[in-house]
Amino acid sequence: MAAAGSGAGGGGGGAAGAGEAEEPLTAREELMALMEKKDAMEEEIGALVAHLESVGVGLKESLVDAEGYPRADVDVHDVRIKRHRVAVLQTDHVAAMKRIEELLAQVHAEARERATKGGEIGASAAAARGGGGSESRRSSVSWADGKDGADDAPPRRYDEDGLLIVSASEAGIPP
After folding, report:
1. Strand order in the sheet with 142-143
2. Which helix (H) or strand (E) holds 119?
3. Which pTM does this prediction carry?
4. DSSP letters of 16-51?
């Protein structure tokens, strides 16, 4: 009986039926799912804090009066439950952010690895450039055809996900 519903790996309650073998998520899929979970946590924290502030206690306000008795104008039990939930969500949020950071590094490392092994983007970018050399190692980056308005502007570079790559000097970050 324990084998049918037990979640091996201590994971996150998958949606697959009993007896079906789940295919492991790729780093990118896990990253996207974790980012959605992070957004949901942030939304719930915001709603809880808004509720606590609307009752007039927030996260730090005292729940006892000057004489040390529980405040009569506040549902102390409800406030304590909501404060606890906020604390749990904040802890989970920190853990999720650390994992997101790890996954981002992994996703980018995998992209660099695919590029050096001559993936689709690398092969087509190398062919478009007319060869290999040191440029083929950066094949996960593609260059746009034209310039962006100004004649002296450098062409824009995009990564394999279509995101614009900006250098530190272009972003205004001092050296």
Report:
1. 142-143, 157-158, 164-165
2. none
3. 0.55
4. PPTTPPPPPPPHHHHHHHHHHHHHHHHHHHHHHHHH
